[in-house]
Amino acid sequence: MDFLLKNFSKVFILISLLILFYVIFQSEIFWKGTQRDYYLKYYFFSILLLIFSGISYFLHDKIKRFLLTFSLCFFLSVYLFEFYASYTDLKEIKYKEEIFEKNTNENFDKRSRFQVYKELKSKNKNLQIYVPPSTWLKKKDNIGLFPLSGISNSETLYCNENGYYSRFKSDRYGFNNPDFEWNSEQIEYLITGDSYAFGACVNRPEDISSVLRKISKKNVLNLSNAGSGSLIQYATLREYLRPGVKNIIWMFYGNDLDDLNSERDSLILNNYLKDLSFTQNLKNKQIQIEELLKAEIDQVYYKELKTNNNFKIPSFIKLYKFRSLIKSLRKKKKYNYEEFNQIIGLAKSLAEKNNSNFYLVYLPRYADYKNKFNMKLYKDIKKISQKNKIGFIDLHELVFKINKNPLNLFPFGKAGHYNEKGYEASANAIHNFIDNR
On the CB side of 290, how many CA atoms lie within 13 Å of its CA? Predict the structure, then answer.
């Protein structure tokens, strides 16, 4: 302790310089300046730490002792949390692996998405990685275009929650549909929503859309995207809704309102609310969209390639879990129901102009059954649906509440998207509700 106290300022300067040099390396060398906005806060933090290190030379020994004791206690606590969170994750992953291998007699795919992509790409040059529209929120409208779909007619790699990496063949606009759906004169169900509506982490025909196609024996078109909130979902409807749709199904999930807070910062997306005639004409800009998406994939691939070929600082040292916790706490928790009410009202009006029925589906969350059901959010969304005279399809009542163990509808009973059983039960409930009206 006496040694640290005597060299307090020198140690702080050394730590500050190491952090600053690492930030410069990541921002300017590794990412070649393309991610400077992201690293700006880390520049600020390291420079602030450096300034404090200089000031510390003039502090009284009592203050230095206090700061040293506080710093040691703080970092010990933080790393204890990091260790616990990392250990819990590893334990959960191990549990999933054991259950999967026991029930399928197959090996749980432990590879990273990059490793899978690299291997499959060598066999299929047209393979792509799924890039959600929320990616462009970080670009601050600098791209001049806000893509709301993916790369067309491509085998697309997505996610692994059920022991395997899900993939899908995208349609002509990059959505998760068989392309022939766009040739149909009549569409029974058009779905919009986030990753749950998209069918995250399962393959066709296990997703909601495919199950609806099977049980209804009619055409289904899915315009959903992972990580999307209500504004992106409404903008997607505006760009890609077509005549001949009988039922529009808007699927609401709990974090859609959090995503809406981020989407309201986009000037392009706000134009859909300010001007009801506004359009980006995205159907006619698929080539431009794909240029942006492929450049983004190349950047992600470049990062992974560099990371795997160079020294990689373990996420434990970088306090990945702790930083994720801080980031989640910083998110706006106050839901803007007025904006959601406005958007859902506009979506219903759009459906009516298209001679389509409009339904709002409430998708329950894992935490609702593992911890405590969020009755306020549930009641508020239901109230908005009733206020706008929208058919409310309550999957909490129709599916999860009546299941003896609703956690069985999630991957291995753990947090994640719905598993195959969850998607199938949800699709059946939606079909039965609409079919009986």
Answer: 16
